[in-house]
Amino acid sequence: MVRVAQKVRVKVDDRELTLTNLDKVLYPEFGFTKAEVIDYYSRVAPVMIPHLKGRPVTVKRYPGGVDQPFFFEKNRPAHTPDWVRTATLPAPGSTKDRETIDYAIVDDLPTLVYLAGLAALEFHTPMWRVDEQGRAQQPDTMVFDLDPGAPATIVECCQVALRLREVLQEDGLDACPKTSGNKGMQVYVPWSHRSENPSEYSKAVARRLEKERPDEIVSQMARKLRPGKVFIDWSQNNPAKTTVTPYSLRANRIPTVSTPITWEQVEGCDRPEDLVFTAGEVLRRVEELGDLMVPPERSATGDGP
Locate the DNA ligase D polymerase domain: which residues (predicted)? Predict the structure, then answer.
């Protein structure tokens, strides 16, 4: 029997979109459909879009669901509507021999829904934005990606994150924790108006903590060094790299989310399960707590929640 693609015409703000295969189950174990993915992104958009805005997005698409092949997409998808904002940026080292890539920029709800409708489950963005003319700007955020090497878990990541916060506070820096939605977590640091290079600064901090706690922390990527330790990946501050965007779904067996958390939750984490949040749980958290990770431009103007 040949399955006929469902097509539904919807209006999102002032844009008309055609959505297909809404009943397609993208998380088979959880029974979570494409319609529910789109619904999640539509409802979380008020807090997610400020983190996406102005950032070239790389999406991870799962047209057959999380248990089927996927692909990363940097170049804006074929047949992208002309109203989707794009930025044409250099592509050094492109595996497809491109000199430039036309990135989509998710500045509004219709663009977010359009990409979700393509089974873009994950959104990944760099630590910098483009200006109104599409030119790359200096980083406005620094990130430490904390990755546990088994048998270490996010519990050990939390212990490292607390020490990391102390070091950052010594330098007058604020820090915002979030789960990766997988096994680890990230610590974000607003970085606007600082003269230091965030990549060099984060590397120095990671090396300092590795020296301080060599049995717990590693700052080098070699996997043979990582079992039982927390890898502080400072290299995510390379302008060519991306990190999963706050509030993005992850392609796990259940629809987990990369979720901003409080430092109290970091301090109180006793089991990995304490910091696992699904799409529905995140929507309830946002309704109750708002955005726990204030985007840099809002932080600078005092317009946080």
Answer: 33-292
Who's near 36: CB < 8 A, 6+ residues apart? 255, 279
Q: What is the pLDDT of residues 112-130, one digit of tens each?
A: 999 999 999 999 999 999 9
Closest CA to 12 of 116, 111, 122: 111
Between helices 34-52 and 109-116, what is the axis angle to 10°? Answer: 140
* DSSP structural state of residue 258: -
Amino acid identity of 179? T
Q: What is the pLDDT of residues 68-119, one digit of tens each?
A: 999 999 999 889 999 999 999 998 655 566 789 999 999 999 999 999 999 9
- Give which of 183, 199, 182 is closest to 234, Cα–Cα: 199
Burial (0-12, 13-18, 19+ Cβ within 10 Å), 102: middle
The strand pairing partners of 25, in sequence order, are: 33
**Bridging pattern class, strands 185-190 and 141-148:** antiparallel
ω into 81 cis (within 30 of 0):
no
Distance CA 195, CA 219 (A): 23
| Residue 87 φ/ψ, nearest 5 degrees | -135, 125
Nearest to 26 by CA among 18, 34, 16: 34
Instruction: Output the CA torsion sign for 50, 145, 285, 84.
Output: positive
Residue 121 tokens, joined: 């489950």
Instruction: Say if CB 234 and CB 203 are below 8 A apart.
Output: yes
